[in-house]
Amino acid sequence: MLSAEHMRSLPAFFTDIPDPRRAQGRRHPLPAVLAIATAAVLCGARGYKAISEWAEDLGQKARARFHCRYRNGRYEVPSRTRIRDVLTRVDPLLLDRALQGWNAQYAATDEGLAIDGKTMCNAIDEEGRQTHILSAVGHQTQTCYTKKKSPLCP
Length: 154
Hints:
The structure is a single chain. The chain is an alpha+beta fold. It has helices spanning 4-9, 30-42, 48-56, 60-65, 80-89, 92-106, and strands at 69-71, 74-76, 113-124, 130-138, 144-150. It is globular, with a radius of gyration of 18 Å.
């Protein structure tokens, strides 16, 4: 469960991400859309439909905490199409950086990390080499702090 403080603070972490949408017709602020999508995934939603259903179930107070669009005396959440459009067009590196900042502020501290690496079968990069991934997961919180494609090891 996310606390009211977590919901209120989440949009602020996305304010520096440039909005990939045209200015004309923009109905929902980018930080609100990204905060709703993030919170939905943190609460177990998988996929655009599940994220939009989670958002639709939010009460008016929760929608206000996410800084949703206010119209005709009610807070509105973005549709599944809007959520998908934003998530497929936003810069993933900037989104990752914002999420790591939020996680660093609110995540419990881990005393140790588990480091794991894998070589992915049938995943070939642009240079014709197999893809290698590396991840670091906290022992206590089971939080994945980072995962990245790594260069070929000597």
